[in-house]
């Protein structure tokens, strides 16, 4: 399928005896925003980490633009055009926001780039997420929501074709949420395909065209937000979780 | 490098300090003329080279190298053996740079993929193995002992005395290495090194081939140590295992670098300026060296308590 | 004839191995608990050795009698070191390893030179009233005790850390400091006590030193690289790992002199260690936390 930019095939990852992702088949279309939801422990974050090469897959394949990128080193995968943000932002604490994003610009893509060019690009992305005034603040000085934005800027500086967002809205309050959604949509409109892992379902469902639901490492549903929300297995997986809560 | 960037660097405070250092070290000791001071100067340059070579990898990335002396000693023995076997000095110096870097490539390629502590232990063990090999060198190369006396090379640059010539050579190396470290720190490579030191996994995810970066930093460091060893061996006219492959030295290089501030280009210089003169003063001023050694032990303790990031790191914090 | 020689090497190997294990057990556990390697610890061992040697030479005191006293004193010393330096550094710096190493180096220098001034730099040794003859060798009771003591101490530690309630709390506080705090565990106090225990083991090793070998204030720098190697290869904080590697090293050092000229012992030893490292880069065993 020519429009599929990223897909996994029977992807499996185990941690000792625990199967975190279980023969997972997922595909992401070009220019799509794909929602990825599921109860805690469903394997969403693990899936992202296997795709980016941070974790090694035990079996199965990952294809990016029809290239097999399974188990490639993370830096190569990043340079090919896949970037991610973390649920809990990991900025370089003793470097400034500018330096953080510059590193993404300098190394995120193949080819030579001068530091001044990287600085220009970094400043562009920092403005893009609205953090221009904090460009010279240190990573560890930032507030939570500011860190999240900078992480997005840093990821975008690597010029990705695919962006994997791991719970970008978690920890944000209403105003910040609207802001973040705005940023995500603008990124998508620039031609970046996005997988959006989220827990705050209300917002997600309103902003994506398609949703994949995971539970226990497996895909249990794949369809439009409406279809998925009516899927009995999906409901059970969430309600079941609530009963334990 | 475009001119605008050049001017941007040129205006900064650090460049001013860099130039001052170059000028001060170039002008004053030679003017003082005393052999004793020149000798201390050479020692200072040597220690700057050693600590800076440590700093390039370990200061920025946090992969602690406790085998600096391995490459230092290797450089010294290469020169020593070359002179004994009548290999031209230029060739010898070239080998003193290349062979340690090749060793660094091999060691680094293998052990820099492991976690930091295991890399550290590997470097220490390489030091011990190499020092043993050279200690027993008579088994490998007949009629060679581990103690090498080489005739003092009658070097004279531009009519300067022997010691002044050596001073000048070490000075040039000091300037080159300092400027190189400064340039690297501000360059693309420097950003990668700092990223690896801050969060290696994230650095990798942002496109940095962390192993390659670490190996490059290690190799640069080993070239510096190798050449430093070769030149100092020539200067001393005497090479043996306890001096050049010293485990004490290899640790102290690290301590001095940490004292001065790791991860900044001027850290090693500050550390050396504190360590060497105090050490020399001990020998000179007191009859009981132990009292003064206690003093410089206190120096380490106090600086680490007050400025755990090293004096250079502390300054860097304050500059902001 | 050959068999007697073999046994001699075996015994010497086990004795050195036992001694190394004792030394590094405290070093390794202290490191695991404080997150930094403590160089002054090795120096303090030599302090214990100096004191033992002096009392032995001047008053004919049997080293073993001094042990309990020294162990008690060293426990207090360890607690003091933890309170003053370790706690402070851990609060100030997130990764105190290198800073602690440098700071304790400074302490080590101070100690070494104080010892030189007070105790003189002479080589000192101690003699014991209790000797045995084994074949051709004359051994003191300390030689015989070295390995058994190391094993006993290891077992005691193992029991303490893994089988008692106190030990479980300690391990919890190391593995999950925040979670432990929430449960009301006073991590700092537990670690402080563990550090004191580590130091008293060191103190004990120190009392053995003048008999098994000799003491001299500057000799401590020689044992330092080996201590690091044993600690890391065995796994920092791992009792079993440290004990096993320590004994292996003692044996290798002893046996190598049989098969190879003495000059090569170190090389062979370290080549073996390099192989261990390549095969099992994690160190042989997992540590405390």
Summarize it:
The complex is a heterotrimer of chains A (245), B (320) and C (289). Chain A has 245 residues and is an alpha/beta fold.
What does this structure look like?
The complex is a heterotrimer of chains A (245), B (320) and C (289). Chain A is 39% helix and 26% strand. Chain A has nine helices and ten strands. In chain A, the strands form two sheets. Chain A has a six-stranded mixed β-sheet, sandwiched between helices. A four-stranded antiparallel β-sheet of chain A has the order 2-1-4-5, with helices on one face. Chain A is globular. The N and C termini of chain A lie far apart (41 Å). Helix content of chain B is 78%, strand content 1%. Chain C is mainly α and 289 residues long. Classes of the chains: A alpha/beta (245), B mainly alpha (320), C mainly alpha (289). The A-B interface holds A 52-54, 73-76, 78-79, 83-84, 90, 92-95, 99, 102-104, 106-109, 113-116, 118, 154, 158 and B 1-2, 4-5, 186-188, 191-192, 194-195, 198-199, 201-210.
Principal-axis shape of chain C equals globular
The portion of residues assigned to helices of chain C is over 70%
| Percent range for β-strand residues of chain C | under 5%
Strand order of the largest sheet of chain C: 1-2
Portion of residues in beta strands of chain B equals under 5%
What is the succession of H and E elements of chain B?
HHHHHHEHHHHEHHHHH
Residue-averaged pLDDT of chain B, rounded?
Answer: 87
Largest sheet of chain B: 2 strands, antiparallel
DSSP summary, beta strand count of chain C: 2
N-to-C series of helices and strands of chain C: HHHHEEHHHHHHH
Spatial separation of the terminal alpha carbons of chain B: 25 Å
What's the topology here?
The complex is a heterotrimer of chains A (245), B (320) and C (289).
Chain A: E1 4-15, E2 18-29, E3 33-37, H1 44-51, E4 59-64, E5 67-68, H2 74-80, E6 82-85, H3 97-107, H4 115-128, H5 144-157, E7 162-166, H6 174-189, E8 193-197, H7 201-207, E9 210-215, E10 218-223, H8 225-230, H9 232-244
Parallel strand pairs in A: 3-8, 3-9, 6-7, 7-8
Antiparallel strand pairs in A: 1-2, 1-4, 4-5, 9-10
Chain B: H1 3-10, H2 13-32, H3 35-61, H4 68-84, H5 89-111, H6 116-135, E1 148-149, H7 162-186, H8 188-198, H9 200-205, H10 210-236, E2 238-239, H11 241-244, H12 247-260, H13 267-285, H14 289-306, H15 310-319
Antiparallel strand pairs in B: 1-2
Helix pairs in contact in B: 2-7, 3-7, 3-8, 3-10, 3-12, 3-13, 4-5, 4-6, 4-10, 5-10, 7-8, 7-10, 8-10, 12-13, 12-15, 13-14, 13-15
Chain C: H1 2-34, H2 39-59, H3 63-92, H4 97-119, E1 131-134, E2 137-140, H5 141-163, H6 165-175, H7 177-182, H8 187-212, H9 220-234, H10 239-259, H11 265-279
Antiparallel strand pairs in C: 1-2
Helix pairs in contact in C: 1-5, 1-8, 1-9, 1-10, 2-4, 2-8, 2-9, 3-8, 5-6, 5-8, 5-10, 6-8, 9-10, 10-11
